[in-house]
Design a protein that fits this description.
Strand content: 5-15%
Radius of gyration: 16 Å
CATH topology: Rossmann fold
Bound molecules: flavin mononucleotide
Oligomer: single chain
Distance between the termini: 19 Å
CATH superfamily: Flavodoxin domain
Number of helices: 7
Number of domains: 1
Order of helices and strands: EHEHHHEHEHEEH
CATH class: Alpha Beta
Helix content: 40-55%
Length: about 190
């Protein structure tokens, strides 16, 4: 069976981001399940804000880099923080660039998960992100929903979850998403 090509993106830019820690665990689960996983660090990539005039001059190099990788991807993993009840501007901007013609996302599979320091665990951010992703034509499984609440106490010093149930739930989400991608022939 073909090895699945997975792209991992974290919506938080900061170095000590809880979502970055969460994404590393998700990447390991996907790699252990046999996928090829590539993370793009949005701070390093430094995509310009989407601007139609810039696009009209041709996609900037950083945008091309992400779009080239997305073209051959089967699955996208999105770790999202919750900013004012939504996803982050950085992640939305990356998705906006990927959604432009020729479109890189329709018929591919994605999943979302997220961590907040508060009690919502990104439930509102994930709902917004799911709406945005559905509009791009990405396909997502509805469940399980992985919410990391009180992220300040959710990780051990060696960057694992303090609660094993959280790991089991993320593993179920990633493994089901990879299986779903293998089963989908949408476009
Ligand atoms: C602009 C801004 C808005 C935020 N809004 C929310 C929010 O709506 N809900 C929430 O639970 N946490 C909110 N937070 C707190 C974040 O959950 C917290 O900063 C978290 O650590 C961000 O993720 P990161 O650790 O991956 O950077 C907000 C933080 C910022 C900077």
């Amino acid at each position: 069976m073909k090895k699945l090509n997975v792209i991992a993106l974290c919506g938080s830019l900061r170095k000590d981001s809880y979502n970055r820690k969460l994404l590393q665990i998700a990447k390991k689960i996907a790699t252990d399940a046999g996928a090829d996983v590539t993370e793009f660090d949005l701070r390093e990539l430094n995509l310009p804000m989407y601007d139609g005039d810039v696009e009209a001059q041709g996609f900037p190099e950083s945008v091309q880099k992400l779009r080239r990788a997305a073209e051959s991807a089967d699955v996208f993993l999105f770790a999202t923080p919750e900013y004012n009840a939504s996803t982050s501007g950085a992640l939305k901007n990356a998705i906006d660039w990927l959604s432009r013609a020729p479109k890189m996302l329709p018929g591919k599979v994605a999943t979302v998960f997220g961590a907040t320091t508060g009690m919502s665990g990104t439930v509102r951010g994930q709902m917004h992100l799911r709406e945005i992703l559905a509009d791009t034509g990405l396909l997502l499984l509805p469940k399980p929903v992985v919410l990391i609440r009180f992220a300040g106490t959710a990780f051990t010093p060696d960057e694992q979850f303090t609660d094993q149930k959280t790991h089991a739930s993320l593993k179920e989400l990633i493994e089901k998403t990879l299986k779903f991608s293998g089963a989908v022939h949408y476009t």
